[in-house]
Amino acid sequence: MTATPLDLRSVIAGERLAAADRPLASVNPSRTAEVVAQVSLAGRADFTAACRAAQEAQAEWARVPAPIRGQVIANIGELVAANKEALARSVTRDIGKTLGEARGEVQEIIDTCEYFRGEGRRLYGQTVPSEMPDKQLFTFRNPLGVAAIITAGNFPVAVPSWYIIPALLTGNAVVWKPAEYSAACAWSFYELFSRAGIPRGVLNIVYADGEETFAGLEQALGEGLVDKVGFTGSSAVGARIGELCGRHLQTPCLELGGKNPMVVTEDADLELAAEGALFSGFGTAGQRCTSLGTAIVHEGVHDRFVELLAGATAAARVGDPTRDVLYGPMINERFAARYESYLGWIGDHHRVLGSTSTGRISAANPREGFVGDPGDGLFYHPVILDGVRPEDKVFTEETFGPIIGVTTYRHLEEAVELADLPGYGLSCAIYTTDPKKAFDFRSGIGAGMVSVNNSTSGAEAHLPFGGNGRSGNGGRLSGMWVLDQFTRWQSMNWDYSGRLQKAQMDVLEIDAELGFRLD
C-alpha cells in the first residue's frame, strides 16, 4: 500500500504558506510510480519575505548567549540521533541513495552537532598588547545577520547541516532553500531543527525553483536583507551567484562541482586502489561533487588496475537502494537525462568496461545481477572508459553519474598536470606506498582536499571541506574554519590613560647602538 503523499509548503516565521494550485510531484526515483510529496513552490516575493522575517528575528537570537545557542545545537544532535533511521529512510525514498550511505549522511549531522555544541563556549576573540601604555586591544567575533542557504539534493541533509548549524550557533538567522526533488527529507530535517528550541523566524524553509530563488535573492540583496549566501550546486550557477553577490560587495560561500582525479602510482596497492575507485566513482551513482572523475594510472600498472576495477564493477550489485547494493538510481529525471547526454561523449578510441551495456538498465538492456525490477526506477549501467584523452569532454567536464575515465602517465609531474588540467579543484586522491610521492603530489595539486590511499569521497565533520577554481571560491565548510564564513571580526581599542595617545606617533622610542660591531 502506497503512503499518502506529503503536503509540503514553505514556512516563514513559523507560518506555512498557502498550498499551490498546481503543486510539484516529487517522486521516488527507485519507484517512479510512487509520489512522495506534493510540493507547493514559493515565488520570488516569498523568498524575499522569508529574508525579511529572518532579519527581524536575528537580533534577538544574537543576544542569546553563545553557550545557550550551543545547547540548542546539542538539542538538534539529540533529536537527529533519536530519529536517525526515519531520516535516513526519508533520504533513500527521496533521492534513491542506498540506506547505508543515507545512514552515514545522517550521522554527518550528528557529528557536526557534536563538534559545534561546545563551540558556543569557544567563540574566542583575543586580547592584544598595545604599543601604548594604559591601553588594551581586543577582537570579537560577531554574527553577520541573515544567511541565505541554497543546497543541492544529492546530500540533502548532511550538506545543509554544514551551513545551518554553524550559522545558527554564531547568532545568524537562516533562510534555507533545499532542492525541490529532495523536499520530503528536507521537511523532516526542518521539523527536527524547529523542535530544538530555535525561535520563530530564525530558521525558515522556502521551497522554490532555481530561477525564482535567484530573483528573490537578487531582490533581498538589493533591500539589504541578506548578509551571507551559501550555495552548493553546479559551477555554472555558482558563478551567477558569485557575480550577484559581488555587486553587493559580499563574498558567498560556494561549494561547487568537481572533476576529481585519482593518481595510481607504480608502487600502489592496486587492490586497495581499485576498491577506492569503485566506491568513489559509483557510490551514490556517481552523483557526488567528490565523485571520482578520472583515474590517472602509471603506465606500468595500468592493465592490472583496469582489470581489477572492471572486475569489481562488473560484480557489483546495483539496484534497489533499500537492499545491499553499491548504488541505486539517478536522483531524478533531470539528472538521468543529463547523464545520457554525457554518454554521447564516448568516442571510438574509448574502451568501455564495467557492465553488460551502457545507458538505462531495463528488460531490453539488462545488467547481470541487477537487484530488483529495473523497470521501477531510473537505474543506469556503470561505465568505465579506458583510453580517455586530455582533450576529451569526458576528461575536462564534470560527469554527474556512474562513469569513470582512465588514462595513463609516465612521471608524477605529468600526473599532477593531468589532475589539474580540467580546472576544478575540489578533491583528489593518490594511491602510493612512497611517502615522498604522497607529499610531492600534495604540494603540486590545486585541490582543496587530498586523500592518500583513500577515495576522493569521504569528509569528516571537523576537517575543512571546499574547493578552488571551478569547484569554489576558497570558502571552507566544517570544523573551526567555517566560523569565518558566518562571523566577522570586530576590533576594539580601549585607552584608559586619561589622555589622547596617537598610534604610530606617540610611541616610546628606545635608544640602541645599532652601529656597534665586535672587534
UniProtKB/TrEMBL annotation:
The Aldehyde dehydrogenase domain, residue ranges: 22-491
Protein source organism: Spinactinospora alkalitolerans
Record keyword Oxidoreductase present: yes
Coiled-coil annotated residue ranges, if any: none
Family statement: Belongs to the aldehyde dehydrogenase family.
EC category: oxidoreductase
Subunit composition and interactions: Homotetramer.
MF-aspect GO terms: aldehyde dehydrogenase (NAD+) activity
Signal peptide boundaries: none
Residue numbers annotated as active site: E255
Keyword presence, NAD: yes
Protein name (database record): aldehyde dehydrogenase (NAD(+))
Pfam families referenced in this protein's UniProt entry, alphabetically: Aldedh
EC number annotated for this UniProt entry: 1.2.1.3
Keywords, in A-Z order: NAD, Oxidoreductase
PROSITE patterns: ALDEHYDE_DEHYDR_GLU
InterPro entries: Ald_DH/histidinol_DH, Ald_DH_C, Ald_DH_CS_GLU, Ald_DH_N, Aldehyde_DH_dom, ALDH7A1-like
